[in-house]
Every structure is written in C-alpha cells, then in structure tokens.
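User: Structure with NAP, tokens only please.
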Amino acid sequence: MILVTGATGNVGRNIVRGLLDAGEKVRAVTRDPETAGLPAEVEVLAGDLNRPEGLGPALEGVERVFLFPVFGALDGFLSAAKAAGVQHVVLLSSSAVEFAEPGWIGQAHLDCEASVAASGIGHTFVRAGLFMRNDLGWAGQIASGVVRGAYGTAAAAPVDERDIAAVAVQSLLAAQDGSIHTLTGPESLSQIARVAIISEVIGRPLRFEELSREVALDHLSAQMPPEAASFLLDQLASWQGVTAEVLPTVEQVTGRPAHTYREWVQHHAAEFLAG
Ligand SMILES: NC(=O)c1ccc[n+]([C@@H]2O[C@H](COP(=O)([O-])OP(=O)(O)OC[C@H]3O[C@@H](n4cnc5c(N)ncnc54)[C@H](OP(=O)(O)O)[C@@H]3O)[C@@H](O)[C@H]2O)c1
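Assistant:
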C-alpha cells in the first residue's frame, strides 16, 4: 500500500494516476474527502498533517509514502510513520535548497528535508525547479492581450507537473534510500518567450509588459507570503538575460523526455482561454 499526501494537489493528482497505472494500491489523505475528486480505486481518508494524532488509520499497512511538504508539520507525521513501519518516504522538495542563498522558500524545504532525514525512514528527495504551472497565474490577463510582470527577460527552465509526478512515482517504485532527483524542464525560456508560446498555442495576440518590482511585489504578496514573493522577485532579477541550466533528470529517471513548455500549454489551453 502506498499513501499519497497532497493527493489533491497539482503534482499529487498525477502521482495518484501514475501509481494506479503501475498497478499499485493507493490510499490518499486529504483534509476534505468530500471534495477530493480522486479516482474510485483510491482509498480516501480524512487527515491533516498538522494533526498527526489522527493519522493512525491512514498509516496502517503502508510501506511507502509520498510526502507533501507542509511546512513545520512533518515531524509528528514522520514519528507516526516510523512507528507504523513505513519503509520509504518520497518528499516533494525544491531545487532552491541547492541555491547559495536558499532564501525563505529554500530554507522551508531544507527544514522538511532535515525532518525526513532525521526520521530514520528510507527516503528520496524530489527537488523540483520552477513549476510551469505557475504561469497559469497569467490566465486572468489573457483576455486583455497583455501579461504584466517584473523582469520579463528572466529565464528559467520550468518543469511540467506531470514530469515531477512521474519522477516521484518512479522513486516510490524503486525506493532507493538517499536518492535525490533535482528537476528542470527541457529548455531555458524567458518570461517574454513563454508568453509568446502561449499566444501561438491558444491563437490570441499577447505581449509581456514590464512592471516595476514594487508593483509586482504588491501583486505577488496577495498570492503568497511576502517573504516568498520577495524571494521569487530576487530570483527573477538574478535570472535576467541568462540561459537557465537544463538537467537531464526527468528523462534519466522516467525513460522518456520531459514535456516541453509548448506541450504543457497545449495541455492547459482551455484554462488559459477560460481565464
Ligand atoms: N511552484 C513552484 O515553482 C515550486 C517549485 C518547487 C517546489 N514547489 C513546492 O511544491 C509544493 C506545491 O505543490 P502542488 O502545486 O502540487 O501543491 P497544491 O496544488 O497547492 O496542493 C497542495 C496539497 O497539499 C495538501 N495539504 C496542504 N496542507 C495540508 C495539511 N495540513 N495536511 C494534509 N495535506 C495538506 C492539500 O491537500 P488537501 O487540501 O486535499 O487536504 C493539497 O493536496 C509547495 O510545497 C512548493 O513549495 C513549488
């Protein structure tokens, strides 16, 4: 039995699908089973990582766990998992842990990794780079024909959530203690270039308009903690005009190429058009 936490999330839903396709028995915990909308084959239980005392039934008979990084809440879960005999944990982490200055987000993920390492349970860290999925945040601006943001020339190699999930699935199946997979997408693209690809794929005229850091910080702080927004803008500033590193990990682990940005936009075209 494999327990998937974060199963209703962008990455988690794809992990559930991948595990079922691989013939595994899957249990999911969610804070709200009523609205989880998971496949019928999944055993869905109510659970909150902030309340590990209630997770006993979810951990019964579980060998491997996909662990969503609920910041500050993993120690109780991991003690309960160890006591229940869990053999391997695959933690969703961030490539920000490898930055010279990990910042608020990197530190939060480093703390999660430290908790998992200290648990004594076999583990894999899946360190994802920037999600392509973040760009769905632009969907609400598509109809206006202008996407606004700071540091348009900032380049990254964003990764498709399906590829992060596929690496996590392989990690759950292989259960190789101490393995670390750092992931990027297959190409370095500036924000301006990504907006151009969205425009081509959905067939709507679109351009990128530069915002000042102050205005962008205001906008982003409405969607995430201000420390995270500030960290993100620092990253974008440092990525201006560079070519982002592209890692071969997705293909090495899954045996197939990582999805391109164009393929990711095609997959989400309806959401961009509905925005
Ligand atoms: N965005 C990026 O560029 C990027 C890059 C690297 C790493 N990351 C990391 O990736 C993660 C986001 O992944 P995602 O997009 O797949 O997440 P998501 O779609 O936001 O989903 C969040 C999931 O976490 C679960 N969850 C939240 N609090 C919980 C709690 N207290 N107990 C149990 N479950 C809880 C939710 O489950 P229920 O609501 O069903 O309970 C939901 O399934 C973040 O940790 C982020 O730091 C993001």
